[in-house]
Structures are given as structure tokens and as C-alpha cells.
Amino acid sequence: LLNSSTILLLILGLLSLALIYYSFIYKPHQYFKQHGIPGPTPKPIIGSLNLLNKYQLDILAFFNAAFKDYGSTFGMYFGLKGFIVTKDLDLLKLITVKHSDNFIDRSERDGILNIVVKGKQYSSLFDSRGEEWKERRRILTPAFSGHKMKLMEPLIMESTKRLAEKVAGYAESGESVDAIEMYNKMTMEVILATAFGRAVDVQNGKGGRILESAVKIFGTFATEGEHSSRIARVLNFMAISFPKLMPVFRLLVRHVVIGDAMDYLAKASQEIIKSRKELDDEKSAKSD
How far apart are CA 9 and CA 155, in angstroms? Predict the structure, then answer.
């Protein structure tokens, strides 16, 4: 028979477990309900991740189904972390324009694809926060000025023409085609041409090491198509849901999904920046 001390300890243990469950699992999932925001009922710990699995991790399909069930704005949970999803244009305008100063940060996850160059770790713009995000955004914004975009226009138009030719060919033959995959290839082709200075005919299946690396990295975030990676998508969802375990997810993505692709692109970018600086110095010297 259990003595009174053992019984008391068991009761205290059960009460502690109940308190932990209420504070860290149950209560976080009540936020949207308390504020009158509709959405799917979350499961303990996993939140709405079970619904994503239902749609085979196709988050757009999940969103479209949820919009039909809950309206233009709803709340959902990745694990214990809540997200508000909306397609209300007036609300989006308030967030991105009128009150943009209050919405400068993205998810709290600590960079699942941090860049490591010569032993030093860098986070991307997507994973930067606060003043670091503001500073990087300030540095990058001039690259997308009207003048710079005009300089990129011929490269973009070249890829667009190739896409139009492929679409016309499919239309003439009546052959079915994966439109998302076509646009993914065209987008990757433009990125390689404008950001890396490499003319690669991705739409016609050409490429090399730089394309292989880009496919691995962009596939980490792709939701559909040839370049998507189911393992990476699972790790991304888990990282968003359980940010405390980010170091583990980052190691898995780096070693299982992308390998040395990020290092290769980082080094390629440094070489491009160096060559462009040397070219600018040569032009300056000639003008002097």
C-alpha cells in the first residue's frame, strides 16, 4: 500500500503535469478562439499540422480549403505557434502600408538556411529581425530601383520570350503541361541571370553546378513541382512549429537536403561581386 507521502507526491506530480499542459499546450491554442478569430480546431501539440498532412503538405491547397470554410481571414497553428492567414485586401493594405512600421519582422525562427562562408555564419534577409532586417533591407532596396530594373529588363524579357514560345508550342500540340513547373523554371532562369550573372537555359533543361545548387536551395522552400523537396518542407514546417529545436532542423537541412550547395552559391556570389568591383575600378581608371 502507498503511504501518505507517496500519495501526496503523486498528486503534486499530476497537478504539475496538468499545469504544464494547461500553460504550455492548451492555453496557447485558445488565443484565436478568445479573440473571435475563426479557424480549424487545433490538436494538442501539433496544432493544424495534421491538416497539412491531409493535403500532402500543399499549403496553398490547405489555405484555399480553409478560406471556403472560415472566410477571408482565419487563424491556424503550426505546432504551438499561431498564424493569422488573410486574403482581405483592405486588411493587407493596413498591415503592409498604413501600419507597416508595426510589422517589420517575420517569423521568429532562427534561419534554417543560414549561410556559412569561411567559418562565419550569416542569416538571410528572410530570417533577419529588428534593426538587422532594417539595415539589410536598406542596403538591398537600391538594387530594385526603377533604373536597375530597366537594366535587368532585357534579361527578364529573354526568359519571358522563351516561356511564351514553350507555351505556344504546347498550345499548338494540345499537350498538357505543368504550368507551375514552367513558371518555376523561368523564375530560376531569371534569378541566375540577374543575381548571379549566369545565362543558363533552364527552361530547356540546360545548366551546371550553379543550377544544381540553386535547385537544392530553392527546392527547400518550393511547395510544388520538380524542385520541391518533401523532406525540406517537413523540416521547414517543424522548424516554424517548434523554433526551440531550430539547431537540429538546421543541421538536418544543411547535411541531408542541400549539402554544400549554399557554400557553393555563396562563394560564386563573392566571386561575381569581386569581378564586378574590378571591372568598375578599370572603368574608373580609364575615365581618369
Answer: 71
Is residue 192 within 8 Å of 218, Cβ to Cβ? Answer: no
CA dist 285 → 162, 273, 282 (Å):
39, 18, 5
Is the pTM here over 0.70, yes or no? no
Q: How far is CA 176 from CA 145, 159, 171, 172, 283, in A?
A: 38, 21, 9, 11, 50
Q: Which residues pair with 77 in a beta bridge?
A: 82
Per-residue confidence (pLDDT) for residue 105, from 0 to 100: 65
Burial of 288 (0-12, 13-18, 19+ CB in 10 A): exposed
- Between CA 124 and CA 231, with CA 79 as vertex, the angle to 5 degrees is 60
- The span from the CA of 68 to the CA of 9, in Å, is 50
- How many other β-carbons are positioned within 10 Å of the β-carbon of residue 182? 16
Nearest in space to 45 (alpha carbons), one of 79, 22, 18, 17: 79
Give the pLDDT mean for 39-60: 84
Average pLDDT over every residue of 36-58: 85
Amino acid identity at 129? R
CA angle at residue 19 from 17 to 23, to 5 degrees?
120
Is the model's pLDDT at 112 over the cut of 60? no
Q: Which three cell numbers stand for residue 186?
A: 523561368
Give me the helices (H) in the chain, please. 4-21, 31-34, 49-54, 59-70, 89-93, 130-140, 146-173, 179-195, 209-219, 230-241, 246-252, 261-287
Length of the chain: 288
pLDDT in tens, 19-32: 988 888 889 899 99
Q: What is the CB neighbour count within 10 angstroms for residue 170?
A: 14
Q: Choose among 15, 55, 60, 43: nearest CA to 222.
A: 60
Nearest to 208 by CA among 219, 195, 199: 199
What's the rounded Cα separation, in Å, for the pair 106 and 96?
12
